[in-house]
Design brief:
The structure holds two protein chains of two kinds.
Chain A lengths: L1 H5 L1 H19 L6 H20 L6 E3 L4 E3 L1 H27 L5 H18 L4 H19 L6 H32 L4 H10 L6 H18 L7 H8 L2 H8 L1 H17 L4 H24 L4 H21 L3 H28 L15 H4 L1 H15 L5 H15 L3 H27 L12 H19 L2 H12 L2
Antiparallel strand pairs in A: 1-2
Chain B lengths: L1 H15 L7 H25 L8 E9 L4 E7 L4 H17 L8 H20 L3 H10 L1 H11 L4 H34 L6 H4 L6 H18 L8 H8 L2 H26 L1 H27 L4 H21 L3 H32 L10 H4 L1 H15 L5 H19 L6 H28 L15 H19 L2 H20 L8
The chains are: A mainly alpha, B mainly alpha.
Chain lengths: 477, 506
C-alpha cells in the first residue's frame, strides 16, 4: 500500500489526464477553455502532491521499478511548474492558429507523466517506459499543426531519429542486462561494484550505446541533428514545451543510468562525456552565430547549454551532480522564457521568430525588451543573472575535479556564445522597429512572461535557496 | 547608512519604472534628487570617517550564498573612501549635464545611469572578491546600452569594441577567481572570498604570476594602459557626454583601484616581479597618450587621449610602493575624475551648440562665450597641473613617490629613477597639448560653425562651478584627504614591502 502512496502524484496525473481527455471529447467548442483550466489545475495539484510527499530518505517501490527520492521530487515539482507556465504561454498562440484543441493539453499531460516516470525510474525498463511515453506525446505535438509542411517534416524527422535513439538505448540496456543479469539500477550498481565481473567488455559496450541514446535525447553533439529542425519546425507553443521541462527529465535520466546504475564505470563514461561536452559547446555556440531565425538560434544555444550541463555530471562528485541539477532547472526556466517571448510577440498567425522581428522592441514595449534582455544576458552567463550562477557552479566543480583545462575551454566557448545573445540585445535596443504596432498579447500571457523574467532576475540575486535545495535533494537520493 | 548610499540609485531606477514615459521633467527631477541625496549621504559618511585606523568602517557583512562562502560584504576604507565620494559627486553633475542633450528614450537613459551608478559604487565598496566581480560585470550592461543607443555615428562599432575588450579581460579574471575559490577551499576547507583573507593567499610564485597576469590584463584594459587602450578613444568619442563623463570620471578608476585593492596586495611576490613591466607601461602610457593627444584634431579625442596619459601617473604612483606615491595615485584618480569629467562636459556643451567637435572649426571662443572660456581655461590649467589645483597635488605626489622610490633603490637599480625622470616629460607634453587645445579653441579669430552662440545657462554654470570649486579645494587643502587615506595606504604598502627580499629598500 505504501508503494501506491509514494506514487500518488503520478497516479493523480494519470487519472486526470484521462478525465481531461474524456471531458474534452464532450465539450462544445465554446467551452474549450475548460480543458485548459482543468489541465492547469491538474499540474498545480500534481506539483503540490509531489512537494507534500517529499521523502526524508530514498524509498524504492514496486520491487525496484521506481524510486522516490529528493532529486526526483524536486525535479518533478519543477517539471509540473514549468509545464504550467508552458501551457499558459501556449493558450493564445494555439487559439489564433485554430489548433486550440484538447489534444495539446492531453498530450502535454501525458508527456509530463512520462517525464515524471523517467525521473523516478529505478530500473532501466521503467526509464525506457517513461522515455517512450514522453517521446510519443512530443512527436504528436510537433505534428499537431497538420497544415504546416515544416511541422510535418519536423515531426517525421523527430520520430525517425527518436526511434533510432530509442533503439540504441534498448540495445545498450540489453547488453547491460546480459552482463549483469538485472535491469534494476540498484542491483546493477551492486554487481558492478562487487568486482565479480572479470571482463567488463560487454558492460562498456552496452555503456557506449546507452550514452549514445542519452546524448540523442539530450541533443549533445554529434547526435544533435534533429534538434534545430524540430525546434524550428514545431509550433512555438510546442517548441517551448520541448525545450524546457524535458531537459530536466533528460538530466534525471542521465543521473539514473550513469550515476545510480553504472557509477562503477565512471572512468569510462567520464571520457565519453568530456568529448560530448566539448563538441556540444563548440558546435552549439559557433553555429548559433550564423542563425537568422531565433528559434534555430535558441536550438543551437540549447546544444551549447547541454554541453555545460554535462560538465557537472562528468566531474563525478555529488557537488557536481547538484551543480548540473541546478543548471538543468535554471536552463529550463530561461529557455521557457526565451520561447515565451517569441509567443508573446507573434499574433494573428504571424510568427515572430526571425531576428528582425525583435528590432526596436524597446520602442514597442520597454518592459518586454527589458525582460527579453534579462533572458538573453542570463543565457549568456552575465552576472548577476541566474545563468551566470549556473555556469559558475558547474565550472567550479570541474576545477575541483582537477580539470582546469576543461573549465578554460568552457569559458572560452561561453564568451564566443555571448556574442549572439548580445546581437539580439543590439537589435532590440539600437535598431528601429520594422513594425511599430504595440504588443497585443493577452494579460495572462504578459503576466506569466513577466513573472518568468523576474524569476530569472530574482534567482540571480538570491541563488542560494535554489542551490541549497539542489544540494539537499541530491544528499537525499 | 553605507547601504543606503549603495542602494539608493537602484531604488531610484526602480522608481523610474512607475514614472509615466512622457513625463521627462519628472524623470529628470527624480534622478537628480536621488543622485543629490546620495551625494549628501556620501559626504556625511566622509565627514564621519575616522582617519586613525585602516580598518573597514560602516561595515555590513551578511551571507549571500553561504555554501560558496560568498558574503554581501561592503565597507569603507581609505582606499575607496575618496572614490565613492567622487562617484557620488559626479552623479548629480552627469545627470544635470544630460538634461538638454538626451531627448529620446529619457526614462531608459536615466534608469541606466542610475543602475550604472549603483554598480560603480558597489564595485568600490565590495570587500568580497565575488561581490566585486559581480558588480564589475554589472557595469558592462548599462554602459553598453548608453553608448549604443545615445552615442554618435559610429556608436555600434564603439560599443561592441568596448564590450569585447572588457569582456575579454573579465573572463580572464573570472577564470582566476574560480581558481582562487578552489585553492582557498582546498587549503582551508572553508570557502571564502573575503578580500582581506586573500591577502594571505600563500600561493607559489608561479601560480601568483598567472593569477596576477589574469587580473592585470582585466584591470589594464579598464585603466587603460598602452597597448590595451585602443577601445578608449572610440568609446569616448562615440559615447554621449554623460557616458564620456562617467567613463572618464569613474569607470577608468576601476582599473587602477583594482590594481591597488586586489592585483598588487593579493599577489605581492608576483607584483614585485611584474613591477618593472607595470612601471614601464605606466610611463609609456604617460608619454604615448600625451603624444597622441598632441596630434588630434577632434576635441573629444584630445581629452580622451589625455586620460590615458593622466591614468599613467596613477599607475606610476601605485607601483612606486612609496606612501606618497600611493596616496598621490589615489588623489590623482579623484583629480582626473573631476578634471576630465569637466572637460568632457564642456566639450559636450559646445557640441550641443554647434554639432561639431572639429578643432579647426573653432576659434576665439573667449570673445564669443566669455563665461565658457573662463571655465575652460581653469580646467585646462588644472589638467596641466598648475599648483593650487588638484591636478598638481595628484601628479606631484605621484611623481614624488616615484622619485623617492627611485632614489632609495639607486644602489641596486637605476631603472626606477630613470623611469621617474622620463615621466616628468609627460608634464611638459601635457602642457603642450592642453595649451594647444585651449589656444586654438579660445583665442585667435572668432569663429564657430553655428552662430550666434547661446551663453552658458544657469544650469551649466552651476555644474562647472561645482567642479572647479572641488578642483581648487583638493588643490589648496589636500590635507584632510591625505589624512583619511593614510592608514589604509600604509597597510597596503606594508603588504607590498613585506614581499621584498631582505636587505632591500626600506
Amino acid at each position: 500500500m505504501t508503494d501506491f502512496v509514494a506514487i500518488t502524484p503520478e497516479l493523480f496525473l494519470l487519472t486526470m489526464a484521462c478525465v481531461v481527455l474524456i471531458v474534452d471529447a464532450f465539450l462544445p467548442e465554446a467551452y474549450r477553455a475548460v480543458t485548459y483550466q482543468l489541465a492547469l489545475m491538474t499540474l498545480v495539484i500534481t506539483g503540490g502532491l509531489t512537494v507534500a510527499l517529499y521523502p526524508a530518505e530514498p524509498q524504492v517501490v514496486f520491487h525496484g521499478a521506481a524510486v522516490v527520492d529528493g532529486m526526483g521530487s524536486v525535479l518533478k515539482a519543477f517539471i509540473a511548474g514549468i509545464a504550467f507556465f508552458a501551457f499558459t504561454y501556449s493558450k493564445d498562440y494555439l487559439r489564433e492558429r485554430n489548433v486550440f484543441k484538447g489534444e495539446y493539453y492531453v498530450l502535454g499531460l501525458f508527456a509530463v507523466l512520462g517525464m515524471m516516470i523517467m525521473v523516478s525510474a529505478h530500473s532501466l525498463l521503467t526509464i525506457y517506459l517513461g522515455l517512450e511515453l514522453l517521446s510519443l506525446c512530443l512527436y504528436a505535438m510537433v505534428a499537431m499543426h497538420r497544415d504546416s509542411a515544416d511541422a510535418s517534416e519536423a515531426a517525421m524527422k523527430y520520430f525517425v531519429l527518436g526511434a533510432l535513439a530509442s533503439g540504441m538505448l534498448l540495445y545498450g540496456i540489453s547488453m547491460i542486462y546480459g552482463g549483469t543479469g538485472t535491469v534494476d539500477l540498484g542491483e546493477i550498481a551492486a554487481v558492478v561494484a562487487s568486482g565479480d565481473i572479470v571482463d567488463d567488455t560487454v558492460l562498456v559496450f552496452g555503456l557506449v550505446f546507452l550514452v549514445v541514446g542519452l546524448a540523442f535525447k539530450l541533443g549533445a553533439v554529434p547526435f544533435h541533428m534533429w534538434l534545430p529542425d524540430v525546434y524550428h519546425g514545431a509550433p512555438t507553443a510546442v517548441t517551448l514545451f520541448i525545450g524546457s521541462a524535458p531537459k530536466m527529465a533528460a538530466f534525471a535520466m542521465v543521473m539514473r543510468v550513469l550515476v545510480d546504475g553504472l557509477e562503477g564505470l565512471q572512468a569510462d563514461w567520464q571520457a565519453m562525456l568530456v568529448i560530448l561536452s566539448i563538441l556540444s559547446m563548440a558546435v552549439g555556440n559557433v553555429i548559433a552565430i550564423a542563425q537568422t531565425n531565433l528559434k534555430r538560434m535558441f536550438a543551437y544555444s540549447t546544444i551549447a547549454h547541454v554541453g555545460f550541463l554535462i560538465l557537472g555530471v562528468l566531474s563525478g562528485t555529488e557537488a557536481g551532480y547538484a551543480a548540473s541539477m541546478f543548471y538543468a532547472i535554471v536552463y529550463a526556466i530561461m529557455s521557457l522564457g526565451g520561447f515565451g517571448m517569441i509567443v508573446l510577440l507573434s499574433r494573428g498567425g504571424f510568427e515572430a521568430d526571425r531576428l528582425e522581428d525583435f528590432k526596436g522592441l524597446n520602442e514597442r514595449s520597454p518592459w518586454f525588451a527589458f525582460i527579453m534582455m534579462v533572458f538573453l544576458f542570463s543565457m549568456a552567463g552575465v552576472p548577476p543573472f541566474v545563468g551566470f550562477w549556473a555556469k559558475w557552479s558547474v565550472l567550479r566543480e570541474v576545477v575541483a575535479a582537477d580539470m582546469v583545462w576543461l573549465a578554460v575551454v568552457a569559458v572560452v566557448f561561453s564568451i564566443i556564445g555571448a556574442f549572439y545573445y548580445l546581437r539580439v540585445v543590439k537589435l532590440m535596443y539600437f535598431d528601429k522597429p520594422e513594425d511599430a504596432s504595440p504588443i497585443t498579447a493577452g494579460g495572462d500571457l504578459q503576466a506569466a512572461v513577466s513573472i518568468n523574467g523576474l524569476a530569472v532576475l530574482g534567482l540571480g540575486l538570491f541563488p542560494g535557496a535554489l542551490l541549497t535545495l539542489c544540494v539537499a535533494a541530491l544528499a537525499a537520493s | 547608512m553605507l547601504n543606503w548610499v549603495l542602494f539608493l540609485p537602484l531604488l531610484g531606477a526602480l522608481g523610474l519604472t512607475v514614472v509615466p514615459a512622457h513625463r521627462n521633467d519628472l524623470t529628470r527631477g527624480l534622478t537628480l534628487a536621488v543622485m543629490g541625496v546620495q551625494f549628501v549621504l556620501a559626504a556625511w559618511l566622509y565627514g564621519q570617517f575616522q582617519a586613525a585606523t585602516g580598518a573597514l568602517q560602516f561595515e555590513t557583512r551578511i551571507p549571500w550564498i553561504p555554501q560558496w562562502g560568498v558574503y554581501y560584504h561592503v565597507g569603507l576604507d581609505g582606499l575607496n573612501l575618496l572614490l565613492v565620494l567622487l562617484t557620488a559627486f559626479l552623479g548629480p553633475l552627469v545627470v544635470a549635464g544630460a538634461f538638454s542633450a538626451i531627448t529620446t528614450g529619457v526614462r531608459l537613459f536615466y534608469a541606466m545611469v542610475l543602475v550604472l551608478q549603483f554598480a560603480m559604487v558597489g564595485t568600490f565598496l565590495a570587500q568580497d572578491l565575488f561581490l566585486f566581480y559581480v558588480f564589475w560585470e554589472a557595469m558592462l550592461i548599462p554602459m553598453f546600452l548608453i553608448i549604443g543607443i545615445w552615442g554618435g555615428e559610429r556608436r555600434l562599432y564603439a560599443t561592441f569594441k568596448f564590450v569585447l575588450y572588457t569582456a575579454f579581460g573579465s573572463i580572464l579574471m573570472l577564470a582566476a577567481v574560480i581558481y582562487i575559490a578552489y585553492t582557498v577551499y582546498t587549503a582551508t576547507g572553508v570557502p571564502s572570498f573575503a578580500i582581506a583573507d586573500l591577502y594571505r593567499g600563500g600561493w607559489s610564485l608561479e601560480v601568483q604570476s598567472l593569477l596576477l597576469a589574469a587580473f592585470a590584463l582585466s584591470f589594464a584594459v579598464k585603466v587603460p594602459m598602452v597597448p590595451l587602450h585602443t577601445w578608449l578613444p572610440d568609446a569616448h568619442v562615440e559615447a554621449p557626454t554623460a557616458g564620456s563623463v562617467i567613463l572618464a570620471g569613474v569607470l577608468l578608476k576601476m582599473g587602477t583601484y583594482g590594481f591597488l585593492k586586489l592585483g598588487l596586495p593579493m599577489f605581492p611576490e608576483a607584483a614585485l616581479l611584474f613591477r618593472p613591466v607595470l612601471m614601464t607601461l605606466a610611463v609609456v602610457s604617460i608619454i604615448y597618450g600625451a603624444l597622441l593627444a598632441l596630434v588630434q584634431e577632434d576635441i573629444k579625442k584630445i581629452v580622451a587621449y589625455s586620460s590615458i596619459s593622466h591614468l599613467g601617473y596613477v599607475m606610476l604612483g601605485l607601483v612606486s610602493y612609496d606612501l606618497m606615491g600611493i596616496q598621490g595615485g589615489i588623489i590623482q584618480m579623484v583629480s582626473h575624475g573631476l578634471i576630465s569629467g569637466g572637460l568632457f562636459l564642456m566639450v559636450g556643451m559646445i557640441y550641443e551648440r554647434c554639432h561639431s567637435r572639429d578643432l579647426a572649426h573653432y576659434g576665439g571662443l573667449a570673445r564669443l562665450l566669455p563665461g565658457y572660456a573662463v571655465f575652460f581655461m581653469l580646467l585646462t590649467l588644472a589638467s596641466v597641473g598648475l599648483p593650487s589645483t588638484s591636478g598638481f597635488t595628484g601628479e606631484f605626489l605621484a611623481l614624488l613617490g616615484a622619485f623617492n622610490a627611485g632614489w632609495a633603490e639607486l644602489p641596486h637599480a637605476t631603472w626606477p629613477l630613470a623611469l621617474a625622470a622620463t615621466a616628468v616629460l609627460g608634464v611638459v607634453l601635457g602642457a603642450l597639448y592642453m595649451l594647444r587645445l585651449a589656444g586654438r579653441l579660445l583665442f585667435g579669430p572668432a569663429r564657430a560653425p553655428h552662430l550666434p552662440l547661446a551663453g552658458l545657462s544657469r544650469r551649466e554654470g552651476a555644474i562647472l562651478t561645482a567642479l572647479v570649486a572641488a578642483i581648487f579645494l583638493i588643490g589648496l587643502a589636500p590635507g584632510p584627504m591625505l589624512e583619511k587615506t593614510e592608514a589604509s595606504a600604509l597597510e597596503i604598502q606594508s603588504i607590498l614591502n613585506a614581499a621584498r627580499p631582505a636587505g632591500g629598500t626600506p
